[in-house]
């Protein structure tokens, strides 16, 4: 079991899969409208976890942002977990905002695109 105390979970896996860079160890990501773009560096099976999250919090957040279409038929969200040091927003940082569904100590900070309300990432306690 791998435990990431404060790992970064990216919610835009589809965008990542469609935009593999020329460097096989770097993945590009972005919001639905393209105003936010970035990269994940040093990608390998040892540095990322690909999971599908079925928690109520991820489902609720997709609904709050009017992005329920990112959920699969069973309500799962495809997520890549990565160390924050490997994540870089290269364009549109001014369009990135954060929020929490629950304001309590240790609650996950969720990042989204203000331009199109695409969920981008979550920083918080994660267990895989």
Instruction: Please name the CATH topology.
Output: Metal Binding Protein, Guanine Nucleotide Exchange Factor, Chain A
- The average pLDDT value, as a whole number, equals 78
Q: Per CATH, which architecture?
A: Beta Complex
Number of helices: 2
CATH C-level category: Mainly Beta
Q: What is the approximate shape?
A: globular
Radius of gyration using CA atoms only: 14 Å
Task: Report how far apart the termini are.
Answer: 6 Å
* Number of structurally distinct domains: 1
Report helical residue fraction: 10-25%
Largest sheet: 6 strands, antiparallel
Structural class: mainly beta
- Name the helix and strand elements from N-terminus to C-terminus, one letter apiece: EHEEEHEEEEE
Largest sheet, order of strands side by side?
Answer: 4-5-1-9-8-7
